[in-house]
Amino acid sequence: MDLTFSDRGFGPSNHSFNSIEEGQEFKRTYRLSSEVHATFIEAFGDRSPIHVDAEYARSAGFPGPVMHGTILNGFLSHFVGMVFPGRSAFLLSVDLRYHHPAFMDDQVELTVKVKQKIESRHVLLLHVGFARCQDQTVLADGKVTVMVRDV
Description:
- This protein is an alpha+beta fold and about 150 residues long.
- The chain has one domain (about 25-150): Thiol Ester Dehydrase, Chain A (Roll).
- It has 4 helices and 5 strands; from the N terminus they run E-H-H-H-H-E-E-E-E.
- It has helices spanning about 35-45, 50, 55-60, 70-85, and strands at about 25-30, 90-100, 105-120, 125-130, 140-150.
- Strands 1-3-4-5-2 form a 5-stranded antiparallel beta sheet, covered by helices on one side.
- A hairpin with a 5-residue loop joins strand 4 (about 125-130) and strand 5.
- The radius of gyration is 16 Å and the shape is elongated.
- It starts with about 25 loop residues before the first strand and ends with a strand.
Protein backbone atom coordinates (compact mmCIF):
# COMPACT_ATOMS: atom_id res chain seq x y z
CA MET A 1 0.00 0.00 0.00
CA ASP A 2 1.31 3.44 -0.89
CA LEU A 3 1.40 6.10 1.77
CA THR A 4 -0.44 9.03 0.32
CA PHE A 5 -1.59 12.13 2.07
CA SER A 6 -5.16 10.75 2.00
CA ASP A 7 -3.95 8.14 4.56
CA ARG A 8 -4.01 10.90 7.16
CA GLY A 9 -7.72 10.36 7.67
CA PHE A 10 -7.33 6.82 8.99
CA GLY A 11 -6.96 6.23 12.69
CA PRO A 12 -4.00 4.40 14.15
CA SER A 13 -4.03 0.73 15.03
CA ASN A 14 -3.61 -0.20 18.69
CA HIS A 15 -1.49 -3.25 19.54
CA SER A 16 -1.26 -3.75 23.31
CA PHE A 17 2.13 -4.67 24.75
CA ASN A 18 0.81 -8.04 25.96
CA SER A 19 -0.50 -8.95 22.50
CA ILE A 20 2.93 -8.46 20.88
CA GLU A 21 5.26 -11.45 20.57
CA GLU A 22 8.98 -11.67 19.89
CA GLY A 23 9.55 -12.75 16.30
CA GLN A 24 6.45 -11.03 14.90
CA GLU A 25 7.12 -9.38 11.55
CA PHE A 26 5.20 -6.65 9.78
CA LYS A 27 5.60 -5.10 6.32
CA ARG A 28 4.31 -2.05 4.53
CA THR A 29 5.09 -0.48 1.18
CA TYR A 30 5.61 3.24 0.71
CA ARG A 31 6.24 5.28 -2.45
CA LEU A 32 8.72 8.12 -2.78
CA SER A 33 6.29 10.32 -4.66
CA SER A 34 6.88 13.83 -5.94
CA GLU A 35 4.37 15.04 -3.32
CA VAL A 36 6.34 13.44 -0.46
CA HIS A 37 9.59 14.89 -1.86
CA ALA A 38 8.15 18.40 -2.33
CA THR A 39 6.58 18.40 1.14
CA PHE A 40 9.87 17.35 2.72
CA ILE A 41 11.75 20.13 0.92
CA GLU A 42 9.12 22.69 1.88
CA ALA A 43 9.17 21.62 5.52
CA PHE A 44 12.95 21.35 5.98
CA GLY A 45 14.45 23.48 3.21
CA ASP A 46 17.14 21.00 2.13
CA ARG A 47 17.55 21.99 -1.51
CA SER A 48 21.02 20.51 -1.95
CA PRO A 49 21.56 20.02 -5.70
CA ILE A 50 21.99 16.24 -5.27
CA HIS A 51 18.31 16.18 -4.17
CA VAL A 52 16.72 18.69 -6.56
CA ASP A 53 18.88 19.09 -9.70
CA ALA A 54 18.69 16.14 -12.11
CA GLU A 55 21.68 17.28 -14.15
CA TYR A 56 23.82 17.70 -11.05
CA ALA A 57 22.76 14.28 -9.75
CA ARG A 58 23.61 12.65 -13.11
CA SER A 59 27.03 14.34 -13.08
CA ALA A 60 27.59 12.71 -9.68
CA GLY A 61 26.82 9.27 -11.14
CA PHE A 62 23.16 8.88 -10.19
CA PRO A 63 20.23 8.35 -12.58
CA GLY A 64 18.39 11.35 -11.12
CA PRO A 65 17.94 13.30 -7.91
CA VAL A 66 18.66 11.29 -4.78
CA MET A 67 15.78 11.29 -2.32
CA HIS A 68 16.55 12.53 1.18
CA GLY A 69 17.35 9.55 3.39
CA THR A 70 15.43 11.14 6.21
CA ILE A 71 12.20 10.59 4.29
CA LEU A 72 12.62 6.93 5.26
CA ASN A 73 12.65 8.05 8.91
CA GLY A 74 9.31 9.73 8.24
CA PHE A 75 7.88 6.50 6.86
CA LEU A 76 9.22 4.69 9.93
CA SER A 77 7.57 7.23 12.22
CA HIS A 78 4.28 6.75 10.37
CA PHE A 79 4.59 2.98 10.69
CA VAL A 80 5.32 2.98 14.43
CA GLY A 81 2.62 5.52 15.28
CA MET A 82 -0.09 4.37 12.90
CA VAL A 83 0.50 0.71 11.98
CA PHE A 84 2.57 -1.11 14.62
CA PRO A 85 2.42 -0.82 17.55
CA GLY A 86 0.14 2.13 16.76
CA ARG A 87 -1.51 4.70 18.97
CA SER A 88 0.17 3.49 22.21
CA ALA A 89 3.70 3.70 20.76
CA PHE A 90 6.31 6.18 21.91
CA LEU A 91 9.59 6.19 19.96
CA LEU A 92 12.61 6.17 22.27
CA SER A 93 15.42 5.80 19.72
CA VAL A 94 16.13 5.20 16.05
CA ASP A 95 19.46 3.96 14.71
CA LEU A 96 19.12 3.79 10.92
CA ARG A 97 22.05 3.15 8.57
CA TYR A 98 21.74 4.12 4.90
CA HIS A 99 23.31 1.72 2.39
CA HIS A 100 22.02 2.79 -1.04
CA PRO A 101 20.20 5.85 -2.36
CA ALA A 102 16.53 5.93 -3.26
CA PHE A 103 15.05 7.82 -6.20
CA MET A 104 11.78 9.47 -7.18
CA ASP A 105 8.89 7.02 -7.56
CA ASP A 106 10.75 4.14 -5.91
CA GLN A 107 8.47 1.78 -4.05
CA VAL A 108 10.12 0.84 -0.76
CA GLU A 109 9.08 -1.96 1.54
CA LEU A 110 9.57 -1.46 5.25
CA THR A 111 10.01 -4.68 7.23
CA VAL A 112 9.77 -4.51 11.02
CA LYS A 113 10.58 -7.49 13.25
CA VAL A 114 10.13 -7.65 17.02
CA LYS A 115 13.53 -8.79 18.30
CA GLN A 116 13.02 -8.35 22.03
CA LYS A 117 10.37 -7.41 24.59
CA ILE A 118 11.49 -5.83 27.84
CA GLU A 119 8.55 -6.60 30.11
CA SER A 120 9.57 -4.41 33.06
CA ARG A 121 9.58 -1.24 30.94
CA HIS A 122 7.02 -2.15 28.26
CA VAL A 123 9.74 -1.60 25.66
CA LEU A 124 10.22 -3.28 22.29
CA LEU A 125 13.47 -3.60 20.37
CA LEU A 126 12.61 -3.68 16.68
CA HIS A 127 14.87 -4.48 13.74
CA VAL A 128 13.85 -2.52 10.66
CA GLY A 129 14.82 -2.60 7.03
CA PHE A 130 13.89 -0.68 3.90
CA ALA A 131 14.28 -2.39 0.51
CA ARG A 132 13.50 -1.05 -2.95
CA CYS A 133 10.65 -3.21 -4.25
CA GLN A 134 11.83 -3.06 -7.87
CA ASP A 135 15.14 -4.88 -7.25
CA GLN A 136 15.19 -5.78 -3.51
CA THR A 137 18.20 -3.51 -2.89
CA VAL A 138 18.51 -2.83 0.84
CA LEU A 139 18.34 0.95 1.19
CA ALA A 140 18.61 1.19 4.97
CA ASP A 141 18.37 -0.91 8.10
CA GLY A 142 18.71 -0.51 11.82
CA LYS A 143 17.20 -0.74 15.26
CA VAL A 144 14.30 1.07 16.83
CA THR A 145 13.34 1.18 20.50
CA VAL A 146 9.67 1.78 21.24
CA MET A 147 7.74 2.05 24.50
CA VAL A 148 4.19 0.75 24.34
CA ARG A 149 1.90 2.52 26.78
CA ASP A 150 -1.22 0.45 27.42
CA VAL A 151 -3.70 3.26 27.93
